[in-house]
């Protein structure tokens, strides 16, 4: 397959238009029912968007005044920047590919092709919560479903340690609580909503039951619930000391979950953050699995903004593992805690980085971020060439869902198309990567 030698840099100002069924990537809901209107090359309206979505659409996505490419902050011709990036990656002995969660799945696949060619480590999941989630899922498995199935069937919904009314505003109305489903025709009136959290949240205020659980007691609560589900009779005093809840409350909670015709449990990566995170997620996954001996119950993550599920899926399709994959030996291998971005950077073992669409790099430890700042970095993404950028080589790219198309994956595995309302005025990140791959091929051949 031939690759472009250099991406196109300019397009004309698009006509005013209205784009129906646009997909918003501002939060994990990935709402795909938006109507986005443009005027004079600017977005002026985003019908159906929540406040988070409106902030995303109305943010400054313009590229006027920004150079297409920079080296050490100095504007250069794109060909010069691409050659320098190819030289850095081609000569690197321990390169690493980061970011990938704020772009399209097609872009991730192109970045993986480069990683394979240069023998890099690829890790889109840089938070300890995400690593814990993946490890727990690999050990225990996960009883899952699509959000459409939850909408149509769930009569009991549990939000564990999350506050979707604030973080995922349309989750409540589109997927989990308010929608009228095929087997829940009364919508909210036909559902029981339970919230488990450390404090009373906005979601808890709207729920039917709130159970306060301190962060340090979550594992004890989860294991006690599982024991009660299996018919155990634990000592009431010991239960209260370890969980902070009386045995009657926990029995009532497990009875409510067992009584569901169809239950849905929602959580996020914070359950896996900190010490013992993988054990907490594993306990939740195992509890939901055991609930299926009594009824139908599923567990889903709320999902982060962008396309983290798509990045993990593309990596799994091509390497067999969703994160921390090393391609240094010509075949993929993964060793959690050894081939992760955090371990490689904190240990000073990476000598060059390709960062695509940034992602959640702030989740890296201080030591890892410090080393990342010391090594050459090729950054491809929106505003990568803005003043103050610390990129060794910066390549300004169009924004996915705004002026770049492709597909993304919702946290439940459903693939959604992006329908950008604006035409790109700068190359997409995928076009930059394709041009970079061509040059790397010539450097390493």
From TrEMBL:
GO terms for cellular component: membrane. Transmembrane segments: none annotated. GO terms for molecular function: formylmethanofuran dehydrogenase activity; NADH dehydrogenase activity. SUPFAM superfamilies: Formate dehydrogenase/DMSO reductase, domains 1-3 (SSF53706). InterPro entries: Formylmethanofuran_DH_bsu, Prok_molybdopt-oxidoreductase. GO terms for biological process: methanogenesis; respiratory electron transport chain. The keyword Transmembrane does not apply. Keywords: Oxidoreductase. It comes from the Bacteria. PANTHER family: FORMATE DEHYDROGENASE H (PTHR43105:SF14), RESPIRATORY NITRATE REDUCTASE (PTHR43105). NCBIfam families: one_C_dehyd_B. This is Formylmethanofuran dehydrogenase subunit B. The lineage of its organism: Bacteria, Pseudomonadati, Planctomycetota, Planctomycetia, Isosphaerales.
